[in-house]
Amino acid sequence: MAAKNPCTFGLRITGCVATLSAALALATARQSVHFSNVNVSIQVGYSDLMCYMCLLVVNVIVCVYSFAINLLPKKSLLWRSVVVIDAMLMVLLASSNSAALSAICLERNGNFHAGWRGICGLAPQYCNHIIGAIAVSFLGFVTYMILLLLDINNLLNPLLVQ
Question: Which candidate, 148, 147, 59, 45, places its Cα nearest to that of 97?
Fold first, then answer.
């Protein structure tokens, strides 16, 4: 009841742990900011931007898939679809990571031309959680890229040998 080889099993567990860690870091990204001069308090969180919610959902999907695929028997016919699903999940991770990265860059630096100021100076804990989640999610992306290359090699190797 495991992946076809130990290397693939280890990479899938690494991908599962990385995406779970990213999802947890993102889900806990909240901070209250109090402005004493106007007596206003605001709360910033990951749910304020859809790209962070997308990153959270994609990381949860990839984590569940990584865990579930390790439970497949070695001789299951579902292993044939693993290459396609791994490729789709890798693309989802790449796109959600890039969207979240562009949003955190905007939140960190602001936009001078639009007159937006960065909020990371006001809410550093929030920004650190987001940056950590993106970094760990990128590790999951790299893991899935390696898995995809291994899957393609396993798929094409019998064709090249015979």
Answer: 59
